[in-house]
Design brief:
Length: about 270
């Protein structure tokens, strides 16, 4: 009877009562009735066990891993991430990239076009992501800002900042490479930018990739999708972010998996 659940004390009492009855019936020399009760007892225990196995199965089915649930009770399942690696470039793939991986893609496109690039090492919301140098003269000619915002539109503030850098450093090009959507203000801004500011969205980036030799495209795809390329990175410590729920408010947010060492959060 070791399979009985601690959560169901009534069952224990019922089984105990039946055992007492069986003992009493034997004592009063009524083996027929006692045997009947033994059979009934086995039937009850059998059905109870089946029921608890079924409910256990139902509980565990929707969760990917009960072990993970134990590790961190407040960590919620992250948005569905496909385990199959993509076999070709697409706008959806570019849109799904972690911002850090997206940045790497933009940088690599310029590198593969034959330009020297220099990362500026700024975080997710920093002003400038990398500089481009001319092939022959090695002079700094442009600046690229990468933004992969899926939840909010790319504000005109981003465009103005880029314009500021281009003007102050006297560069030929200020390029915004983005996945997501430009705000109305940004679109208006792009109609008449004061200096040479350009914006490339997902479709334009896909075009840039398509200009590369096929083998180079394939290699780039492999490099970009190696590892966990969809889960967002922490701008502070470069670990991954995980979906959590605030205990007090019940609101969901992104928190660093390195918590409590790193306390970065993103809403
Ligand atoms: Zn972190």
């Amino acid at each position: 009877m070791g399979r009985r659940k601690r959560k169901e004390p009534l069952d224990e009492q019922a089984v105990f009562a039946m055992i007492v009855c069986i003992a009493a019936l034997f004592y009063f020399n009524r083996p027929g009735l006692a045997l009947l009760l033994v059979v009934a007892l086995f039937a009850v225990v059998y059905f109870k066990t089946q029921k608890s196995i079924d409910s256990e199965n139902n509980k565990t089915k929707p969760q990917a891993s009960s072990r993970r649930k134990k590790q961190n009770a407040i960590t919620r399942a992250t948005p569905p991430i496909s385990l199959d690696k993509p076999t070709e470039w697409s706008q959806e793939l570019i849109a799904d990239l972690d911002w850090r991986v997206f940045e790497k893609l933009c940088l690599n496109i310029w590198r593969l076009k034959g330009f020297s690039v220099e990362e500026t090492g700024s975080g997710a919301d920093g002003g400038v992501d990398f500089y481009i140098y001319a092939k022959e003269t090695k002079r700094k000619i442009g600046v690229v800002q990468c933004k992969s915002w899926s939840k909010r539109q790319i504000d005109v503030k981003v465009m103005r900042e880029l314009q500021g850098v281009v003007a102050s450093e006297q560069l030929k090009l200020g390029l915004l490479m983005y996945s997501g959507v430009l705000s109305k203000g940004s679109n208006e801004f792009m109609k008449k930018p004061a200096v040479n500011i350009k914006a490339q969205g997902g479709a334009d980036i896909l075009d840039e990739i398509a200009k590369l030799p096929q083998q180079v495209q394939n290699d780039l795809l492999k490099e970009i999708t190696a590892g966990d390329y969809q889960k967002p990175s922490c701008p502070k410590c470069d670990s991954k972010l995980v979906r959590r729920t605030a205990k007090k408010t019940g609101k969901e947010f992104w928190g660093c998996e390195n918590f409590p060492k790193c306390r970065y959060t993103m809403h």
